[in-house]
Amino acid sequence: MPARPTDLIHHRYVPPAGFEALQPGVFKASTVLFPNVAALRARDWKHKDGYTYGLHGTPTTFLLEERIATLEGARHCLLVPSGLAAISAVNCALLAAGDEVLLPDNVYGPSKALAEGELARWGVSHQRYDPMKPADLERRIGPKTRLVWLEAPGSVTMEFPPLAQLAQVCRQRGITSALDNTWGAGLAFNGFDLGTGGRVAPGSGADIVVHALTKYPSGGGDVLMGSIATRDDALHIKLKLSHMRMGWGVGANDTESVLRSLPSLELRYRAQDASARALARWLQARPEVAQVLHPALEGSPGHEHWRALCGDDGLAAGLFSVVFHERHEPAQVDAFCDALRLFRLGYSWGGPVSLAVPYDIPSMRSAQLGTWPYRGVLVRLAIGLEDTADLQADLEQALRALG
Ligand SMILES: *Cc1c(COP(=O)(O)O)cnc(C)c1O
Q: Ligand 1 site: residues with CB under 6 angstroms?
């Protein structure tokens, strides 16, 4: 089961003796002092029974790690300076020269850039697979495959894959799987316990769940942070050792911002979901729009997979894309984007302000896989916390600029 807001709000926190408040402290330190040399030698930074150095954790970062682990249904969690750093940290910890990593064709773009850049330079090869076809993933797993990335739905194009089947392929072949769970935010489904038809199969999901806390957990558009959650002790230690050696840490103030936003996570997620669905349905009926890509909408690619995993009245993030009719030239779609007033142009999502970005999808896809069937230009819309009616009016006036 996904985490409940009560679990995040009434999460264990032991305030300093004599200071009975619910709000956690913001502890800042590089140096942590030891009472004597014996204590200095005895303290093991790998476990959370003590503090050794600011980079290895403070009471503030340990608390957020524990709360994100609760949110994701994990046992362990590591914090890193961005969502992308969570992806690179997993690759760094688990891959070596000669290994291969598999990425869904609609993977978060910079993850692909990392595979084509640093990973290639370090002798790690990659292949892209069609995430809608578990048989395609299975076919590509070879003797060099060490890691499979999963993402649901795909970045920007929003196809919802048969996630439980993809994870099962990895499990059967003994390959570690890592899920980018930013969209689901630990609320729409649990990345470790997938299932179908409303039945959850414990342990059937990914081995590692990463989350761009930059998005919904921050909720303010003012923090960059990522998390890496695991259930397996040995896997966690492997990740933690690499995390330590690479010197990844997060700031206390940023950590506190996320701690402050977590209690309202589910409220915001539900509100942005409801607003996005209303706008997506409205856009679906507009003559300018060829296809709305929103996993909770019937007729959207992978809708049946979303329904099987998240349930008939399941949750979805407040994020969707529209493909315009091909009669609207790219320049006209740019004019639509430029005409938006409440929607601002910019990357990221999960904050209070609605955002729009046009994408050139064919340039992002593998031509051989042929996973992109549309001809028109795609615009991704991230719905914020404004009034839905105001957002609809903004879209309506901007559609006039399409010509
Ligand atoms: C935003 C995002 C990331 C990266 O997060 P940053 O904190 O911006 O680096 C990774 N994966 C997905 C799916 C995202 O949407």
A: 82-84, 108, 155, 180, 182, 212, 214-215, 224, 226, 348
Tell me the C-alpha distance between 227 and 72, whole Å: 10
Q: How many Å from the N-terminal Cα to the C-terminal Cα in the chain?
A: 47
Question: Which atom of ligand 1 has the smallest separation from the CA of 182?
Answer: 13
Domain tally for the chain?
A: 2
Span from the CA of 212 to the centroid of ligand 1 (angstroms): 5
The pair of three-digit structure tokens given for residue 341, joined into one six-digit string: 């007033």
181 Cα: distance to centroid of ligand 1 (angstroms): 10
Phi, psi (degrees; rounded to nearest 5) at 159:
-70, 130
The pairing of beta strand 289-293 with beta strand 319-324: antiparallel
With 70 as the cut, is the pLDDT of residue 70 above it?
Answer: yes
Q: 290-330 pLDDT, tens per residue? A: 999 999 999 999 999 999 999 999 999 999 999 999 999 99
Q: Is residue 144 part of a domain?
A: yes
Task: Report the C-alpha gap between 329 and 104 in whole angstroms.
Answer: 29
- What is the CATH number for 150? 3.40.640.10
Q: Which domain holds residue 140?
A: 37-263
State how far the alpha carbon of 309 is from the alpha carbons of 3, 161, 367, in Å: 15, 10, 29
* Amino acid (1-letter code) at residue 227: S
Query: What CATH number should be reported for the domain holding residue 328?
Result: 3.90.1150.10
Ligand 1 center to 54 CA (angstroms): 25
pTM for the whole structure = 0.95
What angle separates helix 303-310 from helix 163-173, to the nearest 10 degrees?
80
Please enumerate in sequence order all residues whose Cβ is within 8 A of that of 110, keeping only pairs 6 or more positions apart, or say none: 84, 87
Eight-class DSSP state of 370: T
200 and 83 assigned to the same domain: yes
Helix axes 83-94, 233-246, angle to 10 degrees: 110
Question: pLDDT tens for residues 107-149?
Answer: 999 999 999 999 999 999 999 999 999 999 999 999 999 999 9
